[in-house]
Structure formats: structure tokens, C-alpha cells
Amino acid sequence: MLFDSHVRILLDAGAALVNATTAGHDGTEAVDVPTGRALQDAVREAISREDYRPTVSPATARALGDVAADLRAVYAAADGGDLDRAAALVNDLLERTDARPRLTHTETGWDLHFHGPDESVARGWAAGLAAGLALALGSDRGGRLGVCAADPCDRVFTDTSRNGGRRFCSTRCQNRVKAAAHRHRSR
Q: How many domains does the chain have?
């Protein structure tokens, strides 16, 4: 399933932000919320691209870490089939970030971007991430927001497969579940 390239960037960054900055399990490993410099590095890595490496201050890292908790709730609601709750959570994020659509000219033409009312990295990204989720939920792709089905992993993902059947955050978790099922059948 293909999302618009800008929406795909926002959804990928949102999932990366959630996975890098929220507590839970990555595979079978317990994950704590990073703090200090580790949080700054995690946020920078989540929102960076080849052509974009932002400066992430401690305040920006904390603000986007807080937004990541809200994003996780959206993924969890969508994964559980509660698109009404996911939409309500996204609407709250859109209102809090004051996301504003804006056409921006790039090398390839005009792109639709979303920004908050100021130019800060945290506000701009929070508004963009909320808008990306809104665009996914406002289409027939809302069910493509998922939480890994490999117990105890709780990392999130956006399903971009053709058939919409993705259940795991990574091939590592998928292989772990398949190996366990194979061992169980072999007994």
C-alpha cells in the first residue's frame, strides 16, 4: 500500500519516534524511556532523513518524546480496530499543535506540509506527525497502523504491504513467532 511520499515520511518518522522514545518491549528486550543526551539522539535519529538532520535541543527532545506517547495511543487504538478513538486522539493532537496546511515548493514541485504557528522543530514536527496520522485515518488506510503481534513486543509500524497483512514490527519478531510456532507443532 503506497502512501503519498510526504505522508509516508511522516508516518515512518512517527513510528520511529514512538519506538525510540517510549517504554515497552522491543522484541523480548525491555525498553526504558531514554533521558538526556540519549533522548536527544533518539529524537534526532527518528526525524532525520538523508537530506535533513535537525538540531534537537533538550527541550525539543522532551516535547517530541511527550508527543510520541500520544502517537503510541493512536497506533494502539487503530491496531485494536477502534478507529473512532484513534480519530479522536488525532483530532486532539491537531488542535493542540495548531497544524496548518501549507504548500511548499521543492525540487519536484509543490508539496503539502503541515506546520504549527511557530517555526520550532518540536511544534512543526508534532503538527506534521498529527497531520500524517489524520491523512492515514481519513482514508481507507487507517487499519494500516499497527502494534507488533509478537508477545511481548509493542513496537509500532505502518503497514505498507500490498495485502495489508503485516502483523510484526520487524522480520526479527516475525521469525521469532514463526520459530516458536514451528517448535510447538514439532512437539
A: 1
